[in-house]
């Protein structure tokens, strides 16, 4: 070799970019693939964890609802439309509840006029009476399927409540 012309190794190509080693691009591409796979696996894991937690909460909610219904007693079921029904409440499926042996309260107003025709005042007396579902003009069956979304809450009735006593009296043959 000629001493006047030293040979230098230059790692830049004609465009002035550093080409580096042949394997550098592959290494970076491989690291990108690994990081992408880790991100995908972490996302899938997070989704599965969220699904398991949601399922657990749903099961706990359902078991709490079912366990708080005392099937030996009547329940008062308060609906979002303001109606209140009394009956035996059961879980129908994940979205609906079933109510059997149904009663509801109705206000009956009677006008009591005085026996003296000279008196024009009247007194209104309101009586609340328990009505058995099925005695209406449209003759519904004695069962109701209600969306859980429409139930605000329910209460187990005590055995000595006025409603429970009225139901027992209704069921007793005269």
What's the quick description here?
The protein is an alpha+beta fold and 174 residues long. It has two helices and six strands, in the order H-E-E-E-E-E-E-H. It has helices at 24-68, 162-171, and strands at 75-79, 84-91, 96-113, 122-132, 143-147, 151-156.
Model description:
The protein is of the alpha+beta class. The protein folds into two domains: 23-68; 72-171, SH3 type barrels (Roll). The chain is 32% helix and 30% strand. It contains two helices and six strands. The protein has helices at 24-68, 162-171; strands at 75-79, 84-91, 96-113, 122-132, 143-147, 151-156. Strands 1, 2, 3, 4, 5 and 6 form a six-stranded antiparallel sheet that branches. A hairpin with an 8-residue loop joins strand 3 and strand 4 (122-132).
For the structure shown, list the relevant keywords.
174 residues; SH3 type barrels; 6-stranded antiparallel beta sheet; 2 helices
CATH architecture of the largest domain: Roll
Q: How many individual β-strands?
A: 6
Radius of gyration: 39 Å
Share of residues in helices: 25-40%
What CATH calls the topology of the largest domain is SH3 type barrels
Number of helices: 2
Mean pLDDT rating: 76
CATH class of the largest domain: Mainly Beta
Reported for the largest beta sheet, the result is: 6 strands, antiparallel
Low-confidence blocks of residues? 116-123
Order of helices and strands: HEEEEEEH
In whole angstroms, the N-to-C terminal distance is: 129 Å
Q: Give the count of structural domains.
A: 2
Strand content: 25-35%
Q: Based on CA inertia axes, which overall geometry fits?
A: rod-shaped
